[in-house]
């Protein structure tokens, strides 16, 4: 995994890192407040051998530097701690005194520093004073110089003294350390969450998973739930513009073998395939195409709800032979768009959609319209969608960003390829549009609207009839749509 992908994971799941940092800072602050203040008392010793010449002083200095290391261990020994407790009981055991003592030396010197930390300021100083005195006595006792050599001398050159303010806890250090630890953990968790997240997050992932061209990205809009169709005010939205781009891309998928009967499906329910079918049909009709929208989702039909038409009689009734298709097709709005609703709910949708009657109906509809859009059932739920897609010229796979997993999309794509369905392309629905792109579209739309408002009052004629009184081309198309087989 490259660095850019990891950075994308962190940017996508930034809130994970932020929450982790806040938790780490909160934990650090809590522990800092709850911690009992500790004071430090210190003393510094100087180790030397008097009455030495220059040569002896150099050799003695090297010898004393080695001895200082041993004296550091002696300061933290059991023997000295027991001696301190026996000499001056301070309510601490020898083990507690031993754990409270720390030592340090400076490289190249014969200075030795001892520090005692305690929650009680006076007790820390008292233990340090006793420790210093007993340490000097112990060294003089155990160190017997060779004959003719000067004895080792230990002097206290600093202290004992105790700090006036606590040495711990340190709020600034604790909060800084906690924040850094939280940041590292947060970034790691964000990357881990991104790696473990198998849902579709971008159009490139959808294209790689399906192996088909990306024909459109439909942006998410909060108002789409209450106004799903691209009519009225919604016709000027970025979502409507994305549908028009899909319309254009769909026309040029294969100019040598254009698809006239298109099945629109998805892997799961609720990914917006029905809304996309309706809006695509509206966009094609706006461009002057003769469009027929068929609701072939016989289990959960929704086209009638979106378009506000009567679905009591429709596709099911035509397939069983109760009515003729010309009697149930309904015109929608003032556009060259006809709609064939689902009709009565059948007990066997798959068998009905895969029947010869369905194949004959699609053949007749192909000759009566420029483009037939079929809204089908989800592929992974039932087999209805595959049955319809086999009879169409191609299928359009719709996936919702952040909801469908790559595994589910791949399974849907395999279901289509398994029966040799021509997958025209894929559409990423409810995609998050970058703010810069949304701003550019809105700015351009506002400028264009302003220019139209400032244009001269004379407008081009868009009536249904020409100046000579004869019907225009759009009216001719509308009339031809009504001549369906009866």
UniProtKB/TrEMBL annotation:
Its EC number is 2.7.10.2. It is found in: Cell inner membrane. It comes from the Bacteria. Signal peptide: none annotated. It catalyses: L-tyrosyl-[protein] + ATP = O-phospho-L-tyrosyl-[protein] + ADP + H(+). GO terms for molecular function: ATP binding; identical protein binding; non-membrane spanning protein tyrosine kinase activity. Belongs to the etk/wzc family. Belongs to the CpsD/CapB family. This is non-specific protein-tyrosine kinase. It is a multi-pass membrane protein. It comes from Micromonospora musae.
